[in-house]
Amino acid sequence: MIARSVVAALILLSLGNASARAERLIVSVSNHRVTVTPNYSGEELVLFGSVEKDAATPADRNAYDLVVTVIGPRADMVTRRKERKFGIWINTDYRQFLQVPAYLALFANRPFEQIAPPEVARRQQLGLNNVLLTQRVGTDYADVVPNDPFRSAFVRLRTQRGLYREDPAAVTLLTPTLFRTSIPLPAEVPIGTYQVEIKLLANGVFLTKTETAFEIVKVGFEQFVATTARQNGFVYGLVTAAMALMSGWMASIVFRKD
Amino acid sequence: MQLYLPIADLPVNIFLVLAMGAAVGFVSGMFGIGGGFLMTPLLIFLGIAPAVAVASVTSHIAASSFSGAISYWRRRAIDPALATVLLCGGTTGTALGVWTFTLLRALGQLDLMIALSYVALLTTVGGLMFWEGLRAMMRIRQGVVPPRRAHNWIHGLPLKMRFKRSKIYLSVIPVIVIGIMIGFIGAIMGIGGGFILVPIMIYLLRVPTSTVIGTSMVLTLVTMLFATLLHAMTNHLVDAVLALILMVGGVTGAQFGARAGQKIRGEQLRLLLGLLILAVGIRFAVELVIRPDDLFTIRELGVSE
User: Fold this and answer.
1) B142 CA to chain A: closest CA distance, Å?
2) What is the pLDDT of residue A68?
3) Whether complex ipTM tops 0.90
4) Sheet (strand A74-85) strand order
5) A239 to B70: CB separation less than 8 angstroms, yes or no
6) Cβ neighbours of residue A233 under 8 Å, at least 6 residues apart?
7) Which of A47, A221, B252, B257 has its CA 20 to 30 A from that of A204?
8) Does the model's pTM come out above 0.80?
9) Total tally of structural domains belonging to chain A
10) Among chain B residues, CA nearest to A42
11) Cβ-defined contact of A241 to B225 (cutoff 8 Å)
């Protein structure tokens, strides 16, 4: 089965390179710019798409699989592990994850292991276990095996916060070629540019992919405060200190006992 | 009503935080303390990162100690000379504290150090206060007047200076050392330090009770303002929105607490305060000893946009 699909992939690749592509993906997200206001409590974007066939498409191919990957802005993160030392729990070991997505979602129309054989899944980064999360191990930079304790703890913690997610039933095929999926964005989504990658597969073979993007911006007083705090620490500190003095002074006037 | 805290990065119920501020304000007004040692732990237990809690509470304490300082100033219950000398040490201590805070944060041991400091300080001070309150109550019951030594070793130190309003003649060395100590732990733990400073000034420096609270409030005010500024500049962790809610709740609660406090006898008050401090300390200790729900934590080192 695997051998056959690899052969099929090779044939397809050569076909795809030689002539026009057999399939084309056309996608669109419901909103390219999500504004997060102070009372934002999470939102869902909808991604629509269709698979366009052309003359090169084999007539008998109609069972498509789709994998949608949403990659948020990247950041360095540290995962620390607590251990019992001298009777108390303290941080001991840590791993640094380099430029990993702050938000990561993987959606498909059926379980990833049914869509593609392991090596295709790994190469195409299908599923949370196959996404590249680079760690700094000493002086080396590498991704590790999916069951590495730090990697799995990292993925688990991000998943708990709704920032990493994997749903093999989120992509709905409305017709064999028309699909949709919703992209949930929790309340604490990081701001920045989000890349959406849509990969088309059939019979365990990668066919084509397309990309789109959307942007998350935070607006309102809270965002202004957060930005100021980060960029103008001194002014921010002065204003906070002045605010403290003002409210203390106001209190002494309001509650003056005479 | 949910409100999003910009720096703590957390939605909270505005009334919950307001009520917490008022409750802590009530207790602090009752005992005549800043209340930082209650506020910071409460915020931590609420789910706010210890670092953000410490940094934000500093500005809240500044507000409450300013309103206190104003009323003590009107009553001429502040010793300006003593306050100035204390502040020399206090600001140095605060700067050292914020620097240590930043260092510990980079090492990933800040939360542990905050918890450990709370355990050590609160159980010691709470235990001592509780013991002292018990003994005072016993003495009153037996009708014994406590012996009071006029001088101790501290009064033998050089560099003496006359503090007119407090009517004491005292070396500046212990005053500066105490200032450094209070500033340092205040910046790391997010406490004003009044509950340690006042007993130290009374028992060690023999500062009269007429000026001790007002003067200690001036130290709290300036070190906390300075700590707010430094935390905002170095770690960007001061949540002004959180601080403002706490201030509003805190200063209001403090007024009612002060009225309630006048109805309770001094030694009973000390006993209660001792118990309260002890309880918070033990709560932290338990947290450290029991196995955490999750052994792993993630810290984001800034999103690159």
Assistant:
1) 37
2) 93
3) no
4) A140-142, A135-137, A88-101, A74-85, B296-303
5) no
6) B232, B233, B234, B236
7) A47
8) no
9) 1
10) B11
11) yes
